[in-house]
Amino acid sequence: MGYPRLVGEQPCVTADFDALNQLADYFRDRQKAKVAELKQAGTRVGFADAIPAFRGHGICEGDEWINRAVAGPNGDGDFHDGDPANQAPCLPWPGENVCASLESFHPKNAGTAGYARVMEQELADIGYKGS
What secondary structure letter does DSSP report for 59? Predict the structure, then answer.
């Protein structure tokens, strides 16, 4: 399963997020090459490319399927103030430190459903019918 491009073609924030989209392209190309190699060796495998399905749904686009930066914590499994400094991306804030949530730059519910549709289609394309 490949990564989508996270940010729309016309970014709405001043930060330069082109590197994130370039990483998605890089990983897609590397994964596709590995899948082709494995197929040639006789492994029954497929690659599900999420980039086309997420077009128009990145950060800064009309129907965002990806979270922007989200302040946390939003549950026990999230980053918390006081976590080891090398693990928690927290910023000093008056009265309490604000930590980035693990939800940041990850799919919203619509994005999770979009991922599922891409994977379901790839499984059907390779003939997978379940266990």
Answer: B
